[in-house]
């Protein structure tokens, strides 16, 4: 007895399997959001193209400048960063550049790489409280209390374990202020971030300055992006440093380099020496 088979899909069904408004591609034709690729090549920057594909419209020159500044600021933070260390270790294990990139990007998660998205979530919550009628101080206080209740005491985007003042953040915030003066962004999120910094300092008795995650979160929020794209764009930015370190490690050579130098051993805190299996 033969098994019944489904009716083979027709061409329209096959074409509708994936739906996208990003690219229209057929033999001898490539269009991004309706624009022929040959009209974009040499006329728009890489940052323009990122924005165009992800957001759906071309950025204004000031929007592109802010987005580019955020991407430039986040490219690298040295081999002590887990993502960079993993990329270099992957190369010493015989990996390829694409393997190193993939391995490194995969660890840009909630703890290492997620603070920008989390800061955007915090800023968004406080901004919603302003819409409901709170003033900036009350909205910020309520937003911080809500964050701590839900996520714990760490406030994303502020403080840094290496830098007393993250050198990237003031420059980014200065650029935000310049664009806000033109009226192209509101500057409201920058004000929220400044109020968070003020309240953290009052609570701690010392300044807890904004870091790069907070500053880039301000930029992406001012530009109207949702929080998940904050992490996605950070992954694009950090991929530049990952690639550079992986390539450098390949040129330097080295085999099977782990997280500790040769001769350094980890702390063992298990069972003391014993006969096994127990007699």
From TrEMBL:
Task: Give the EC number.
Answer: 2.3.3.16
What is the enzyme's main class? transferase
**Gene Ontology CC, one term:** cytosol
Pathway(s) per entry: Carbohydrate metabolism; tricarboxylic acid cycle; isocitrate from oxaloacetate: step 1/2
Q: Where does the record place a coiled coil?
A: none
Question: Which GO molecular function entries does the Swiss-Prot or TrEMBL record give?
Answer: citrate synthase activity; lyase activity
Q: Which family does it belong to?
A: Belongs to the citrate synthase family.
Protein name as catalogued: citrate synthase (unknown stereospecificity)
- Tell me what organism the protein belongs to: Marinobacter lutaoensis
Q: Taxonomic classification, please?
A: Bacteria, Pseudomonadati, Pseudomonadota, Gammaproteobacteria, Pseudomonadales
């Amino acid at each position: 007895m033969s098994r019944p088979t489904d009716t083979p899909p027709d061409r329209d069904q096959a074409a509708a399997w994936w739906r996208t408004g990003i690219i229209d591609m057929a033999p001898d034709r490539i269009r991004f959001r309706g624009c022929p690729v040959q009209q974009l090549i040499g006329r728009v920057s890489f940052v323009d193209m990122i924005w165009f594909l992800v957001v759906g419209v071309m950025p204004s020159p000031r929007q592109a400048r802010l987005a580019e500044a955020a991407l430039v600021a986040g490219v690298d933070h040295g081999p002590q960063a887990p993502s960079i260390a993993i990329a270099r270790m992957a190369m010493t294990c015989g990996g390829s550049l694409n393997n190193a990139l993939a391995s490194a990007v995969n660890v840009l998660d909630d703890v290492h790489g997620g603070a920008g998205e989390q800061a955007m979530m915090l800023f968004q919550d406080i901004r919603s409280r302003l819409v409901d009628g709170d003033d900036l101080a009350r909205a910020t206080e309520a937003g911080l209390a809500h964050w701590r209740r839900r996520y714990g005491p760490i406030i994303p985007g502020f403080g840094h374990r290496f830098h007393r003042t993250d050198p990237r953040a003031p420059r980014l915030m200065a650029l935000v202020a310049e664009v806000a003066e033109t009226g192209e962004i509101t500057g409201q999120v920058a004000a929220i971030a400044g109020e968070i910094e003020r309240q953290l300092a009052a609570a701690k008795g010392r300044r807890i300055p904004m870091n790069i995650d907070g500053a880039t979160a301000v930029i992406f929020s001012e530009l109207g992006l949702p929080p998940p794209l904050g992490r996605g764009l950070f992954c694009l930015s950090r991929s530049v440093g990952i690639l550079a370190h992986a390539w450098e490690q390949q040129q330097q050579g080295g085999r099977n380099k782990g997280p500790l130098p040769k001769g350094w051993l980890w702390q063992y805190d298990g069972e003391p020496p014993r006969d096994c299996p127990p007699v």
